[in-house]
Amino acid sequence: MSITSDWHIHSRNSCDEASLAVADLIRDAARHGIRDYGLTDHAHTRCNLPDIAASREEYLAHDPSPRFHFGVEVSSVSQWEIDEIARGGRGSPTYGLREGGPPGAPLAIGIAAEDVERLGIEYVVGGAHWPMYVPIEREAVIRDYHRQNMFLATHPLVDVVAHPWWWWGAWRDSDGMFRREPWLDDFGAIPRSMHDEFAAAARQHGKAVEVNIGAMLLNPFYPEPFRRRYVEYLAALKAAGVPLSIGSDCHSDRYDVEFDRAEEMLATAGVRDDELWRLPPRTDGAHQP
Fold this sequence. Notes:
By secondary structure, this protein is an alpha/beta fold. It has one domain: Alpha-Beta Barrel (TIM Barrel), CATH 3.20.20.140. The strands form 2 sheets. Strands 1-2-3-6-7-8-9 form a 7-stranded parallel β-sheet. A two-stranded antiparallel sheet has the order 4-5.
């Protein structure tokens, strides 16, 4: 297969280490044969909305083609956290609060329908990025991430669930590798019932699930056996009728993605480019929200 779309790309306006200029993305996407794609800078809480506005401004300044879209990546956070920040006294935390909340707090995202309309957001990618106030031990983290994935798979504003079962945090070895917990040494530690429930929710609510190239398939800090098992997981989602989307998760100053390696891995799972989720070309112009 040849990958021709990418729905998870960060620009230099993102709140993290991303550093890609929109002009460079447009040039390099054409070089890679990426025909349909979109920007998705981070919005963890409302503190990040000025970043999204800056991203939108740079996007529009390049008179984007109808096949270049404007999106956003939201994080699963908690309503407690959003309320705490709104009350003031917490400053403007770039990544939200991330600790101190009650376990099991109702989940939320940091944007509302009116933000989507005002900022001209065409699609929303949503991901679980950190544990939500639970003990850092395998079973607790697995239950919590499943709860977050289910929340995103049923949220009315989310179109694509990003990198399910991505992990970045505790249990990292001195050389930077993640070899063990929470599921990097044994993806089978996650009950099959969770995978089945998630697939059913995504299918029922019309969500796509992301095939994340940078954070999952080609993550150099993950063990190779896990990455192979993850491709099998994606194949199972596809077999269950869940649409898959492609996301490079580019955070670099160059849009230089190893699409060829990802294509080889996905071919083993029977994934075809013409089956992948994508937005149709716009018909009303990028300058219309």
